UniProtKB/TrEMBL annotation:
GO molecular function, one term: serine-type endopeptidase activity
Designated name of the protein: Peptidase S54 rhomboid domain-containing protein
UniProt keyword Transmembrane present: yes
Keyword Transmembrane helix: yes
Length: 245
């Protein structure tokens, strides 16, 4: 065969992701852009009817869509802009390195865990905002680093950034003098969900995957399932209280 006409070898999906891990290939973060667009549109529409339809409220906890739809709502411009900025910064590398679907699962299940955790631990609190999903994205950085440590650049900088963001946000919330009530239950539940879901669904692109990581993945599946079922059963057994509240 004439060497001038050698067939072009296309890169596999795994090769493309590895290039993204090494910051060598750009990626458009479709999922978080769509979410941010919807959140912005709903805020600009400023419809009281839509707001009441989508927010999480303890009086309406038996309406299942509210456990996720509340993430699309924000109280004011500052609330919206802060959440849009942080979730974009956190989601862009995850979506580039782990893909659209896995990042969406982390964000959505983190939000679901946040509302379920609030229903169990702080049952009188109504809730809007995407903070639970943001905390899920934040803690999901750790499984991504763990699974692809050898391929990622600036691994320890990422870990330090995760720790600094957590400490900074907690410190700010502790010393904040005014503003709406913050649901610690939602933040903590979202963070735990992000860690467990990331450990469950994220992919390792390394050629070597030790048995310990596989065991950790299975343990995460079991623990997340137990916590999810416990929360649902708890809410179901307290539904009469929710109706009569």
């Amino acid at each position: 065969m004439d060497p001038r006409y050698r067939p072009v070898q296309t890169k596999s999906a795994g090769d493309r992701v590895i290039n993204r891990l090494k910051c060598a290939l750009p990626y458009v973060p479709c999922f978080i852009c769509v979410v941010g667009f919807v959140q912005t549109v709903l805020f600009l529409i400023n419809s009281p009817e839509l707001f009441q339809l989508l927010l999480y409220s303890p009086d309406l906890r038996l309406q299942p869509w509210r456990y996720v739809s509340y993430m699309l709502l924000h109280l004011d411009t500052i609330h919206l802009l802060i959440n849009l900025g942080i979730q974009t910064v956190l989601a862009v590398p995850l979506e580039a390195e782990q893909g659209f679907l896995r990042t969406a699962l982390v964000y959505i299940l983190g939000g679901l865990a946040g509302s379920l955790g609030t229903a169990v631990l702080d049952p009188e609190l109504s809730m809007v905002g995407s903070s639970a999903g943001i905390y899920a994205l934040l803690l999901a950085q750790l499984p991504n680093i763990l699974y692809n440590y050898e391929l990622l650049r600036y691994q320890w900088y990422r870990v330090v950034c995760v720790v600094c963001l957590c400490v900074g946000d907690v410190t700010y919330d502790m010393f904040r003098q005014a503003g709406p009530v913050i649901s610690w239950a939602a933040h903590i539940s979202g963070a735990i969900a992000g860690l467990l879901v990331g450990l469950t669904v994220f992919t390792s692109y390394s050629d070597y995957s030790p048995l310990s990581l596989s065991l950790l993945r299975y343990a995460s599946v079991v623990l997340f399932t137990i916590l999810l079922l416990f929360s649902i059963l708890y809410i179901h057994t307290h539904k009469n209280k929710a109706i009569l509240h």
